[in-house]
């Protein structure tokens, strides 16, 4: 596959992911209602990727720094995305989440 085809495939997957997040934004099941976090993850990827491309373009002559910046941006992007998607779920499962229908914690001491 050429690079252009790979970019089109990856972009189409992001568009489909955004569509699914948009369609499930009003789900009332707490375990499935993470569309706002998926949306923030998509914005995170767009902003960090855009800044990585801009920085790499500016320092194109210095290949070592360009590779370092790209690697750090990828690590930062995946870490933030994983935290946005999974930290609220862990927070909910551990019992620190207060139910909207009651005033007590889900897990008692």
How are the SSEs ordered, and which strands pair?
Elements: H1 3-23, H2 35-58, H3 63-93
Tell me the major beta sheet.
Answer: none
Strands, count: 0
Structural class: mainly alpha
Order of helices and strands: HHH
Contiguous runs where pLDDT drops below 50 for at least 5 residues: 102-106
Output the number of helix runs: 3
| Global Rg | 19 Å
Name the helicity range.
55-70%
Morphology: flat
Distance, first to last CA: 56 Å
The fraction of residues assigned to DSSP E strands is under 5%
In the residues, how many domains can be counted? 1
Mean pLDDT across residues: 77
Description:
With 109 residues, this protein is an all-alpha fold. It has helices at 3-23, 35-58, 63-93. The longest helix is centred in the last third of the chain and has 31 residues, at 63-93.
Task: Write out key terms for the chains shown.
109 residues, 70% helix, single chain, mainly alpha, flat
Concise account of the structure shown:
With 109 residues, the protein is mostly helical. It has helices at 3-23, 35-58, 63-93.
């Amino acid at each position: 596959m050429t690079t252009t085809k790979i970019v089109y495939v990856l972009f189409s997957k992001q568009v489909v992911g955004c569509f699914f997040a948009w369609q499930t934004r009003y789900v009332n099941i707490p375990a499935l209602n993470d569309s706002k976090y998926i949306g923030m993850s998509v914005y995170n990827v767009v902003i960090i990727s855009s800044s990585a491309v801009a920085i790499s373009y500016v320092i194109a002559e210095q290949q070592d720094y360009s590779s370092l910046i790209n690697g750090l941006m990828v690590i930062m992007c995946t870490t933030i995305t994983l935290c946005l998607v999974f930290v609220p779920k862990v927070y909910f499962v551990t019992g620190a989440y207060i139910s909207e229908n009651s005033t007590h914690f889900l897990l008692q001491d």
